[in-house]
Amino acid sequence: MECPHLSSSVCIALDSAKFPNGSPSSWCCSVCRSNKSPWVCLTCSSVHCGRYVNGHAKKHYEDAQVPLTNHKKSEKQDKAQHTVCMDCSSYSTYCYRCDDFVVNDTKLGLVQKVREHLQNLENSAFTADRHRKRKLLENTSLNSKLLKVNGSTTAICATGLRNLGNTCFMNAILQSLSNIEQFCCYFKELPAVELRNGKTAGRRTYHTRSQGDNNVSLVEEFRKTLCALWQGSQTAFSPESLFYVVWKIMPNFRGYQQQDAHEFMRYLLDHLHLELQGGFNGVSRSALLQENSTLSASNKCCINGASTVVTAIFGGILQNEVNCLICGTESRKFDPFLDLSLDIPSQFRNKRSKNQENGPVCSLRDCLRSFTDLEELDETELYMCHKCKKKQKSTKKFWIQKLPKVLCLHLKRFHWTAYLRNKVDTYVEFPLRGLDMKCYLLEGWFWALHSIRNS
């Protein structure tokens, strides 16, 4: 949000002698000595623990609020308000009077100056540690961690992502996508695009909504983020540049509050798909797809007019069959998808604790079976039969005509009634390997039917 209190609160002196020693992310609260989530006051440079620890930063703000007795005290209070703090790990700014994270800056750019100063302190404190880790990586000739699964060794992303407020929803999706090898390699091999020039060229800056930069590319920032996650030269990477582009093109995700991870993934993939269709850095979309020989034409699924690496990896096709119960007319429709949203069957929606042994156990197969089972449409979803020329009762059934290379399944954790929205906290068991989808595929059903007839 845009905060109106910055001019009266941000008056910190950028003097390293006034700050504690060490990296800002490891500073300790001056009250409880906790080094978890240190926040620095942008008025007096004092360090306290943030709102998610013991809340001493908030108490520092409350103690600074002097009761107003006359107009002079009111004017004095406006000159020095201890209301704005900065998270020393994510460099996000929080105002206690607004009770929200701040996205704007003062006219003199004081917030950005403090942020850059803390970043410099952080970099200088970790220089020796980074050299040591780099030498270790060179000695082992590995730039990624290795994960052993059933005796086989698989490379996984070696760099973490810093949380920018409550952006764990974004970080979880980024880490998941970065470990899909074919998808990640495609973006890392794209040609780089320099979006900036002049004084900001080659320098990472913290962007805010108040900056008027319209020349943004989600594909480019996504590429940079994936490269940073796999280069292995640091333990954690802060994706603020990517988050700034997300703010620009996805207004629903502006701010630092919690968001839905599945919704973010859909928006991200959709915008990547649309941007890749329009070409990238002067190279046409078709030329980019041809460069990656592993993306064969048979594995592409067109959505919104064209195919990209997004649809080649995540794109599948559903067949929707609707049958009129009066005349028996069948209607078929083919719908492309990037993920499947599965309902948890109603018989499993009763609350069940982890240690509860009695009662049925819901599995992923139960959710898939509920999704593909024959369903009779209710009175509010009557089918317009072309033969009967009016709306009739009908049945509906989904088949998966084509599976994607990577199948994304989303469990619907909310159940809507006429007046309420209920959280579904049912535990769902699912296999880590070897999920058999044959019985949900159209081809698998025809194969089973053919085997029964021949027998």
Automatic annotation (TrEMBL):
Enzyme class, broadest EC rank: hydrolase
Principal location: cytoplasm
Keyword Cell division assigned: no
InterPro entries: Papain-like_cys_pep_sf, Peptidase_C19_UCH, Ub_carboxyl-term_hydrolase, USP, USP_CS, Znf_RING/FYVE/PHD, Znf_UBP
Cellular localization per UniProt: Cytoplasm; Nucleus
Enzyme Commission identifier(s): 3.4.19.12
All residue ranges annotated as the USP domain in the record: 159-455
Oligomeric and partner information: Interacts (via UBP-type domain) with H2A; the interaction is less efficient than with monoubiquitinated H2A.
Protein name, as recorded: Ubiquitin carboxyl-terminal hydrolase 3
Taxonomic lineage of the native organism: Eukaryota, Metazoa, Chordata, Craniata, Vertebrata
